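S1.2 Input.
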Amino acid sequence: MTNPASLLHPDAFLSPLAIDDVVNRALDEDLGRAGDVTSIATIAEDARAHAVLVARRAGRIAGLPLAVATFRKLAPEIQIEVDIRDGAAVSAGAQILRIKAPARAVLAGERTALNFVGRLSGVATLTADYVRHTAGTKARICCTRKTTPGLRALEKYAVRCGGGFNHRFGLDDAILIKDNHIAVAGGIRAVLARARANVGHLVKIEIEVDTLDQLRDVLGTGLADAVLLDNMDIPTLSEAVRLARGRVMLEASGGVTLNSIAEIAATGVDYISSGALTHSAPNFDVALDIDA
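S1.3 Output.
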C-alpha cells in the first residue's frame, strides 16, 4: 500500500486536499528558499538510501498518508512499502514503512514525516487509552475544538484513528449554547426558543449546564437535542442520567482524565468529551533508521 488514500483509516475521512495543503506548508517551512543545504553539500546527487520508519513504543498509528505524501513530493519515483494503515496498533520496535529513494529526498523529508506521524500517533494513542477505560459502557469518547491552529482536521482524524469520535469541527456545523450565550440571551428558556426558531431541521442543538436545576429547566422546554454536563461530580452525573431518562443525549465534560474516565462512563452518560485528547497528547516516539 503506497497510495496515501489507501493508508487512511477506513472509518474516518481526511481530505486529499487537506493532505496536500498541509504537506506543502510543512515542507516549505523546512526547506525554505535554498532547500536542505546540508544534504546538498554532503550527499552525492545519485546516492541512494534505504530507510525504515520504526515505532519506539507501543501505540496506535496515525499520519501515514501524510508521511508518504511528504516523501512523494520530494521524489515522485520513491519506492515505499507499508503493511499497515492508520488506526493499527503496533508494538515497540515494529517496522511501520520501508523506503527506497534518492538519499537527499529521504533526508530532506525525514523530520517533516516524523513530525506528522509522531504528533498524530500521539493523539491516536492517547485516545485509544481513554477508549479502553470505557470498555463495557455505552459512553463514546469525543474530542473538542482545543486543537492546534491550522491542524484541526488532522488531529480530529487522529482521534478517529484511536477509536474516538468527533465533536463539532467548528462553530458552523452545530449549535452549542454555553453559559455566556445563556447570560446574554436572557436565560435557558429564551436562548433555546430563539435557537430552535432559527435553525433548520437537521441542525442539532446542545446546551451546557452546570447544575441539576438548569438541567430540569432544559428538559422542561423539550427544545434541546443534547445537554453538556459541565464539571459535575460522579453523584451529580448519575442523578442527571436518572433525570433525563433518555430524553436527550448527555455529554460529560470538564476535568476528564485517564484517572476519572472509567467512573464517568459508568454513570451512564452517552458521550464524554476531553480537550486533552488533542491539546495534551504526548508525541509518539518514531524514528527513521537509514541504511545507506
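S1.4 Remarks. The longest helix spans residues 103-132.
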